[in-house]
Amino acid sequence: MESKVANNVCLVCVDGWGLSDKKEWNAIEQADTPVMNKLMQVTEKTCSIEASGLFVGLPRGKASNSVISMMNVGSGRICWQDMLRIDLAIADRTIYHNPALLKAFDTARSKTGRIHFLGMVSDGGVHSNINHLFVLLEAAKQHGVRKCFVHMFSDGVDTAPTSGARYVQKLLDNMKENCYGKLASVIGRYYSMDRDKKWDRTKIAYEAFTQGKESQKFSVENLIAFMEQKYSFPGGKDQSDEMMQPILLSPEGLISDDDTVVFFNTRGDRMEQLVETFAFKPPFETDFSPLNLHVFTMTAYRWNWPFPVLFPLVSMKNVLAEHLAKQGVAQFHCAETERFPQVTTWFNGGVQHAFEKEERLMIPSPSIPLVVSPTVQPAYDLKPDMSCMEVAVEVSEIIAGTKFPFVLCNLCPPDLVAHTGAIGPTIEAVAATDKAIGVIRRACEMHGYVLCVVGTYGNAEKVDASSTAHTTSKGITKQDASSLKRVA
After folding, report:
1. Side-by-side strand order, sheet with 358-363
2. What is the pTM of this model?
3. Exposure winner among 71, 153, 376, 422, fewest CB in 10 A?
4. Any idea which residues carry the catalytic annotation?
5. E strand or H helix at 378, and its extent?
6. CA nearest 170: which of 132, 217, 125, 127?
7. Residue 309 has what pLDDT?
8. pLDDT of residue 42
9. Would you state the pLDDT for residue 375?
10. Which pLDDT belongs to residue 58?
């Protein structure tokens, strides 16, 4: 069915572009942004939008992220998030009777008597929550699983860069109080949570968990002192939680044949690669791969994976992309690698396949070399513009072709560079993004498209090396909308 539309529209979602009156550490205010400045001046339909907490389906006061924002954009409703679903299950104690969790415990007891919990240990609330882990440990003890090991991913992005030692202490205190569980290993999320097909990083994490390879060996008693020492290495050689190299604390806790493995992160995009290496054949050469593992995940990281999920996917029906498809409207979704799942799976309501007449294009994100040495911390401050101009050029060409009445793209440098805590590169990232918006704007003007630019959540308006997490600042949109759900 062909359908005519009143206006061709290009929706540009800019991650990390939040609002703040403060100029200090505000890369958006300090950057040269003539395009966005003009857009904000020339239209009466420019407004701030609520982009965090309950407005996007999160617990009150929690900052949003790229997945949650894209689920809410144009949805016409609040998309209640897995984090809140899990919190509610903990509050009413139904999680202790969760069928998939009980199956994990039964499997562990009937096989090796060993269960492993893998995930990020922090209270950042973007990918995981340490309180969820505490409940899993309590439940495993209640159900008589003999041995339990935790493999900790240190955060340093959604929390302060050197706060990991504090979360280690909380975890150890919990284990001591409950006389249950062992902390087996620690590794930075840079290695364990890569989503950009940089398999060399994933391999380091996989071999650390299964072989103790390339791991520094320490006792639990000395771990916190060692991490704090890492934070303050002289000569610029300090190491943040994000980049923490593998630490082995319990050789007994290495993952072995027939063990039960539970991944407890709530957000799936940064778990897919690691889970794939355990659940299927690793896509790299390695000395040892444990056989017959029993894999469980907290949420549905991929809809078609065959193993049990504690909180299965609740798909969103009739979101904007699906509605357009039902009306026979052709649409085009584009982003660089770092944000491609956001403009496809998550914008489509958690559906990984393309709808009818939907075409997609992924632009490769810059390849930042892996440097294991703590003297360098590879991150996008090394290339602040990332691939935003390449995205803009492709989108402008699509607009020029006028084949697609709806064009969606994502520009992410303000967010991902702000995560490094480096104000100078973040200013460059904001300026580069502004230029990319300018390219898209000119194409829209030339070919009769309505341009809608949305700052989906905050980050670059508050760049601080001591706190690199997203903010709860309002976003901005060049149209009349009160929150992300009403953008399109």
Report:
1. 47-49, 475-477, 449-455, 8-14, 406-411, 331-336, 358-363
2. 0.68
3. 376
4. 66
5. none
6. 132
7. 97
8. 66
9. 31
10. 82
